Amino acid sequence: MAEAESSLHTYAPNWSKLSKDDVIDKVKGILYGQAIGDAIGLATEFMTKAEAKKYYGKNGPSSYKVIVPDMHRERWLQGDWTDDTDQMLLILLGVVENNGKVLKEDFAKRMWNWTKEGYAELGDRGGMGIGMTTHHTINHQMFLDDPHKAANDIWESSNRFLAANGAAMRTSVLGIVNFNDLTKVWENTKEISLTTHADPRCTASCIAITTAIALMLQGEYDPLNKKSLDQLVHRCLQKAQEYLTSNDHKKELVDHAKTKSWDKLKLDDRKTMGYTFKTMGAGFFALQNSKDFRKTIMELVMEAGDADTNGAVAGAMMGCKFGFKKLPEDLLQFPHRKWLDRKVHQFLVTIGLTDQQQSKVDQGESQTEKERDQENQKEDTLDQTETVNKNTKGDNQAEAMNQGRDVGDKNQDQKDIAITKDENQGAQGESKDAKDDNQVEGMNQGTDVEDKNEDQKDIAITKDDNQGTQDASQDAKDNQEKVADRDASKDDKKENQDAMDGQDTRSLDQNQDQPPGDQEVTTESMDHSTTTASSSTE
């Protein structure tokens, strides 16, 4: 029975008109292409097009090394991906550990654990980059038992206003699993999208993306042939429209996916940059107009706005179009590349695209696994030591980090306004003003709570790594007291903070804020080991 069940989720030659090697090349192109788009997109995240051109010139960032080290971007290691790829990998790992199946309850549990722990083997101390819609849904009392109900409650409570891109950014991998069976692809896509985002526009965006990926893997259409690609896009949008009840939304979906230029998408519009149709539209424009992965991903990055999320979706779709072998080798040099290689290999084995005995990764498994563990431990120790050193540099370092959070917040605040402006023009007025006011309070609250949380965690790390170093421990305690004093001062300025803290008994390890409306909260990481608070429409 187990073998029969497994065969339902593993590749067979009749799944595709392409050769097995070509399918593998495209699957890897999807996964690594997303990570590239995400990582290089960070270069212009929250910028305007004018700002992007000012910092990177006409052609965009030539490598991860030239990413502007401002107070927002310096929090990441060069070439590190963000929450977009983190969450896609949560789905991938669930497939691996559930014998090729996609289970919404399993994904909900992984999301919950990720918000608290992140990827511990990469030095995480909690999930980074949690969007507002996702944040509120995860905090819903029914989330672990019935995530779809939780997400729907949050959507209804916003007057069906929320249509952010947080589901679209992670959905690419769902076009791979069971790609031969479109009905299963659609079922999996809808199940995972609805886990955090209940708006039909979010589901339709995801369906369009995963359908395109599955059809390319089937070899039914040639993405390098314009006529064939046009037919593929038409079929994807036709299916996606079935998930929409509003004719206006159906037209809007098609308009975004068939846009004639980057300019028409207005990706750097601070009021709408996180709208799910914009991210989907960016992916489809890249798919239909790209002749070279690097050239197109750089064009997209220079459109700025929510560039890492747009880059993640476009990178995945172009990665499927061109294949892994055509991806820029220099942009594949992620700081956690070896870790990612192992996870992708496990996924390929699970879905039947590669064999344990065929892979160099698995040769001498018992010996190499020990070496990998030792290497990971060394990397983690270095990350933790770096964190401890940062936390013992004194008041100037602490003040600089606070300024970094403030600047990052200001950049991202501009992004977190109505993502569905066109559909909610009549609802802006006083309602929007109230949302903006509450957002500021929520952002301040999240920063305060997170500051406390970070200092507590940093002290714990200091104790573990420097048990015999009393000075470092004392410095960490002093930092904690200083932050607590700063927090207390901030608390005096926020009358509603205590009440808001008490409302949520399932806080994401109490390091997330709770802004209203369609904005989303994120905590981003510099090196999968540091935490700061900011806002994002994901």
Compact description:
With 538 residues, this protein is an all-alpha fold.
Give your account of this protein's structure.
By secondary structure, the protein is mostly helical. The protein has helices spanning 2-7, 20-41, 49-56, 83-97, 104-117, 132-138, 147-157, 182-193, 200-218, 226-241, 247-257, 262-265, 276-289, 293-301, 307-322, 337-350, 365-391, 395-413, 429-465, 470-492, 497-503; strands at 520-524, 532-536. It folds into 2 domains: 2-114 and 161-359, ADP-ribosylation/Crystallin J1 (ADP-ribosylglycohydrolase fold, Orthogonal Bundle); 371-536, no CATH class. Helix content is 58%, strand content 2%. The protein has a two-stranded antiparallel sheet. Strand 1 (520-524) and strand 2 (532-536) form a beta hairpin. The model is unreliable at 1-6, 361-367 and 383-535 (pLDDT under 50).
CATH fold-level assignment of the largest domain: ADP-ribosylglycohydrolase fold
What's the arrangement of strands in the largest beta sheet?
A: 1-2
- Indicate the CATH architecture of the largest domain: Orthogonal Bundle
Biggest pleated-sheet summary: 2 strands, antiparallel
Corresponding CATH superfamily of the largest domain: ADP-ribosylation/Crystallin J1
Tell me the Rg in angstroms: 22 Å
Unreliable runs: 1-6, 361-367, 383-535
What portion of the residues fall into strands of 2 or more residues? Answer: under 5%
CATH class of the largest domain: Mainly Alpha
Which descriptor suits the 3D outline?
A: globular
Q: What structural class do you assign from the helix and strand content?
A: mainly alpha
SSE string: HHHHHHHHHHHHHHHHHHHHHEE
- N-C termini distance: 40 Å
Helix content: 55-70%
How confident overall, as mean pLDDT?
76
Total discrete domains: 2
Number of strands: 2
Number of helical stretches of at least 4 residues: 21
